[in-house]
Amino acid sequence: MDVERLKELVGSGWPGCRIEYYEELTSTNAAALSRFDELGEAAHESVFIAGRQTAGRGRSGRVWYTTPGRGLTLSVALYPRETSGPGALSLLPIAGAIAVLRTLLDMGGLRCCLKWPNDVVTNERKISGTMVEARWRGKEVYGLALGIGVNLNQRLEDLPPETTGRATSLFLETGTELRLEEFTAALLVHLRPLIGKAIGDPAEMALIAAPHWIHKKGDLLEVCFDEGVTRGAFQEIDEAGTLHLLSKGRAVAVRYGDVRRLRRLQ
Ligand code: BTN
């Protein structure tokens, strides 16, 4: 990736944006978090991009795999003083997902939806995943990494076989191939104000996200998490990113897990 070109393209869309590009990292999230050990607060808003991740991390301990040169892996380091709102940990990845969704539409003409908690999907296949990880000192968070992975130019053979039928890329959906610098610049420009909203105005963030959820009121969903499975009719996703279901007449609030839509309400 041509980082100078990327910085030029970002320009005034994110004034003074600090971008670090590495051919190879274990994980951009790990790099963002460890920068807090060196710099503390000064690491805030540093952006880490890797050509290749040797240990890319996904939610729930999964691996995030991307094809070098064809996918985007990026993390933004955020210092908690600026992100101490109660919903920040769950709203930041939603902000990231909305930035991806807007950029895919602007640059690739591809319409996508959000699937709870923060996947970007099109035609029921995942095209991007986002997640937030925290660095803790005792009970105190002293650094966050907002990580974003996007499948852009991958061909079918680039996607891991275990994701067949569940994952896709912009190229596979549209035949459009984008330059990584151009997509990344547009993504960062969308992302910055959304980070501000996730941190400072959760109600507004929830309103921005609302029309993009693939889930419609009454859809029957199944949520899997460590302790088991919950099924229920979708009600809403609130300002803290919590999923609300109605299960056997009982209201159930779900804060984490993986969701599967069993039946769409007609
Ligand atoms: C998920 O859907 O499971 C979340 C995937 C997040 C992947 C990104 S790629 C950039 C950043 N670095 C990582 O190691 N993971 C995130």
Instruction: Trace the largest sheet across and list its strands.
Output: 1-2-3-7-6-5-4
The main pleated sheet reads as: 7 strands, mixed
Oligomer: single chain
Percentage of residues in DSSP E strands:
25-35%
Number of helical regions: 6
Q: Uncertain segments of ≥5 residues (pLDDT<50)?
A: none
User: Judging from the principal axes of the Cα atoms, what is the shape?
Assistant: globular
Level of helix content? 25-40%
Measured between the Cα atoms of the first and last residue, the distance is 46 Å
SSE pattern, N- to C-terminal? HEHEEHEEEEHHHEEEEE
User: Any idea what the radius of gyration is?
Assistant: 18 Å
Overall pLDDT: 92
User: What structural category arises from helix and sheet content?
Assistant: alpha+beta
Bound molecules: biotin
Count of beta strands: 12
Summarize, please.
28% of the residues lie in helices and 33% in strands. It is an alpha+beta fold. The strands form 2 sheets. The protein has a 7-stranded mixed β-sheet, sandwiched between helices. A 5-stranded antiparallel β-sheet has the order 11-10-9-8-12, with no helix packed on it.
